[in-house]
Amino acid sequence: xxxxxxxxxxxxxxxxxxxxxxxxxxxxxxxxxxxxxxxxxxxxxxxxxxxxxxxxxxxxxxxxxxxxxxxxxxxxxxxxxxxxxxxxxxxxxxxxxxxxxxxxxxxxxxxxxxxxxxxxxxxxxxxxxxxxxxxxxxxxxxxxxxxxxxxxxxxxxxxxxxxxxxxxxxxxxxxxxxxxxxxxxxxxxxxxxxxxxxxxxxxxxxxxxxxx
Length: 212
Hints:
By secondary structure, the protein is an alpha+beta fold. The protein has four helices and nine strands. The radius of gyration is 16 Å and the shape is globular.
C-alpha cells in the first residue's frame, strides 16, 4: 500500500484506547507466521481492512508482527515513522503510517526497531528463478519496490519452506503470505505474479527473536 494520510491519535489521560491483545513479549517469528497462515484469506475481524482502500498488505504484515510480539509505539511518545500502532479511540480506528504503508514501515523497521538486519537484496528476479532469500526465517519481512524507484510498494511475511535446504543443510524458508492480493505460501519473490519483475527490487529484513 502506498501513501496514506495518518489519523492523529490522542493518548491523553481519560481517553479510552483499545486494540487486540499483544500475544507475547518479545518477538516470535513462528507466532507471526502462524497468524499470517490463519488470516491470509479470512481477514481477522478484530482489525480494520484496507483491501478496498489502497491495499491491505502492510496492515496484514503489521498485524502478524504484533501477534508475534512487536509492541506498538503510540503517539505522542513516538512520532513520524518511529510511531507504529493501530488502536481504537471511541470506536474509531487511529493509526500511524508505518502500520499501513510499505515504504513508511520499511523506515520503522530498519531505523526504529533494534536489531533488524537486511539479509537479502535482489533485483529483477524472473518467474521460475530460484533465488536465495539470505537464510530468512519465519516472521521475517519481505519488501517489494516494483519500479526500483526507491519507494517500496508492497510487503509480505515469510511463513514456510518448500522443503528445500540451504547450502549449510538448514531449512530454506522461501514461502510468504500476503494481502492484496491474497497469497498463501507463495514463492518469496512473487515474480510469478508480477508483470514488473524485470524492474523489481526486493529486500528481506530479518527480525531477531525477542525483539519487542
